[in-house]
């Protein structure tokens, strides 16, 4: 009674100061979750099947959906390879999921039906209902398009592609530049149709192109907070101007992204970071996220000298070169490499990564974008055969993030991490087959 009387008195005082009126409440439930939470959400597991070599994941993709309660239960076991359903894909499927977990979105990767987009309704276990409607985008974006779902309420996906870059010479045969034709295509995820596309060559500076630098691949498009620009990651390569052949071991330019108007997809502009020098394309997952501060945070890859960085793109759609966040420095390693990562809310993110001395073994890191610090997540069973190179999917739901952790050909688990505190809980056991590995939860 004394505590409640004190609380009422305190609120009476606050009521006399209008600026603090919102400070009084009888609700002691604590802060709101970092993200929206979906009751009875399905957690869909995806497993990649070996084709020729253990861990290559090129033999197709299996999916199986379980409840959140089962996902959190270490006594529950699931084998997606025995009980799951194959999704349409000649190789590893490029999957996305709706925020509520009730729909999977898929674009077939390579093969006769490469570039075909369809959805699957998620009904639990291996009960996935494929949409009666499909649309094939291969005539615009090729049979192996890279794509991500925008964070716009599950309305839009964006696929991107660059045709094989071609060497251009003058009439005397002297090298001029190397370029491919880029495609940026928007998909209406609800009505399963192409809502727009644009194709163009994307030029670098005259000096960079004369040296042979060019965009080899586009990936990981992200919609900015204002909703008027797409930020698209790049994978850079270099032609040797003297031979016209691809050059390895070249001095890298600053990290680059392409910015286009949205929703028109017009007016491509290249922006360059002077902080990072790696590529910004990611590999098979999201690679940029809009933070709670409305700035975009972007990971880098393939910088063998400096390791991965987290870069910041301000709301003016330019790199903030005052923001310096080296994962090598934060983790105390060399040659860090972010395979995939996910923003989890309130400046916290989680990444699956490896580093120079790890022999490709994977780890999980908790990243604080505000303090520019990171630490390896303990409480996870690590193994020399744990490889996140093809990892795609995290589930963020309320205050929890779900990650599937399985070494190639070995059992593993779902891990459920509390976003505000970082506390780790071992969840469902993931049974495996030789050569296979789980590539995400959706």
Strand order of the largest sheet: 3-30-29-28-27
Kindly name the structural category. Answer: mainly beta
Shape, per Cα inertia axes: globular
Which segments are poorly predicted (pLDDT under 50) over 5 or more consecutive residues?
A: 1-28
How would a textbook summarize the main sheet?
5 strands, mixed
Radius of gyration, in Å, reads 23 Å
How many discrete domains? 2
Percent strand equals 35-45%
Number of helices: 6
Please bin the fraction of helical residues: under 10%
Distance between the termini: 47 Å
Mean pLDDT across residues:
93
Number of strands: 31
Summarize it:
The protein is mostly beta strands and 442 residues long. 8% of the residues lie in helices and 39% in strands. The chain has a five-stranded mixed β-sheet, with no helix packed on it. Strands 5, 6, 7, 8 and 9 form a five-stranded antiparallel β-sheet that branches.
